[in-house]
Every structure is written in structure tokens, then in C-alpha cells.
Amino acid sequence: MNKTSLFCEYYAQWVEVYKKGAIREATMAKYLMTQKWVEKLAPELTVSGLTRTIYQQLLNDYAKEHERQTTLDFHHQLKGAILDAVDEGLISRDPTRKAIIKGKTPRAKKIKYLNQFELHTLIANLNLKETPNWDWFILLVAKTGMRFSEALAITPADFDFSRQTLSISKTWDYKGQGGFLPTKNKSSVRKVQLDWKTVMQFSQLVKDLPSDEPIFVKSNDKIYNSTVNGVLFRLCKKADIPTISIHGLRHTHASLLLYAGVSIASVARRLGHASMTTTQKTYLHIIQELENQDVDIVMRSLANLS
Predict the structure, then answer these.
(1) What does the DSSP 8-state code read for residue 186?
(2) Can you give the pTM of this predicted structure?
(3) When you count CB atoms within 10 A of the terminal residue's CB, does the N or C end of the chain come out lower?
(4) Could you report the per-residue pLDDT of 210-248, keeping only the tens digit for each?
(5) Are the C-beta atoms of 236 and 122 separated by less than 8 Å?
(6) Which H/E stretch holds residue 159?
């Protein structure tokens, strides 16, 4: 590669050399998607032609179709390759300096979750057979708030029935070829406390299963998120409650804990969030509602002092 090389080709080579095999497949897919957008938006741009103005225009063109956060991710993925090009002397100055990130206004995202009565109704309608099925899977996610990939990777050995805990230390590569993968981040490695009823149910379910093999998936099976969501959708319809997704069960778990008065810090640890900020952003509407209730409690308490 030299100064006259096409930037899209330089970026493709940079991704191949520096990222392939060094990052997770899901992250790699994002870099490859960025590569496709560069090819689409700037097919004739050369490496030396990448000035601050040209780069800003590239970002602006991308931002027309994407939200600001997505544009920021696009910028970060390009910046690594561009800074290396600067270090190699292919570009004289850093064109990403003082870049302005724009983007479409994000749509209001309303989190779908069940209230306590609706969740109780759903669980009452589960068909919990003697062997593992998706109804058991739905129950476990509802009781733990695990991510879909984390729940797929659970083995009998992850349960500590005497201490009533479940260890979450891996995920299942359901989007790829199957097999265990690391968790989303270090904070996702955690132990989740289980209630006594769940302990009794799962101790019976897994007692004759191989200890180190996933409970809900076989190594050669291809599992789709949509398949389990379909099972949950039909269960919700049968129970005459709002339809939600498996990820909605995770939101249900978190919201019920927050409404019960569990601290944000404890909910964040139970969900495996990297920081409480993530929890606060995700469940802002619930937190604001609880704060309004707190104001009423404070006012009543102060009024009683007079």
C-alpha cells in the first residue's frame, strides 16, 4: 500500500492484518460492515486524499443513514486505521482530529417487560417436562436475568445447589459454529443467587445430565434466537399477557428487582453490566418513577415532624 492506494483497499488490508483473529467474530463483523460502507461512500478516495474536510464529509454522509452513536462507532473503527496510515507516512496529518459526530435523532425505545402478575401468569403456563425444553429455558432466564447466549451455555456443573448459586462464566456461539465463548465482558462473569424453589426444580432436572455439557443445546445443533422467541410468543398469547422477547424477560427480571427496592448496584452486578451507568440508562424510566415515589415518602415523613 502507498499514498495513491484506494483508502477502502488500505482499510480492508488493515482489518485483515490487525483485527482478524484478534477480536470476537461479532466485533469483526462490525469492522467488515464499516469496510462495506467505506467502499460505498468513498470508492475512489485515495489514502493521500484523506483530508480533514474529506473525512468529515465521509462521516456526514454516513450519519444521514445512522444514529449518532452508530456514527461514533464508525468513526472509532476508521480512526485506528487512519492513525496507522499517519504513522507510516502515508498521510501527512491526522484527518480525524476535531471530527464532528452527527447522526439521525434516535427513536424512542420503549423497553417491553412484564409486570409481576403477568410474569407469574407466564410461569404458571410453562410446560415443564421431565427433560429440558425451551419452557425450562424461559423459566431460568426469568429467574436469573441472563442474556440469551449465557443461558444457552449453562451446564449442570454451573449450579451450586448447596449454596443456591449459578455461575455464569461463558456464552454459547449460537451465531457461529457452536461451542463455548467468553462472556461479553469481565463484569459478565458472576454468580447469581437462586431462590429455593428454582434450586429444587433444577436439581431434579439436571441430576442425570452430563455435568460439563450445555443443558439446552447440543454441540451440533443450530439454534436461532427467533426459535425461542417464537416459543415465548406463543406462551404469552396462550396466557393472554403482552408478548415479549427472551431479552424482554431480562428486562422483566431487572424491573421487578428495581420495583422491589433492590439497589441499582445490586441489579447491575446481577445482570453482569460493566457499570451502573449502563443499568441507569437502560432503566431510566423505572428509576425516575421510583424517585417520584421517594419524593412522596420524603414529603410525608417531613410533614409528620411538625
Answers:
(1) G
(2) 0.71
(3) C
(4) 999 999 998 778 899 999 999 999 999 999 999 999 999
(5) yes
(6) strand 159-160
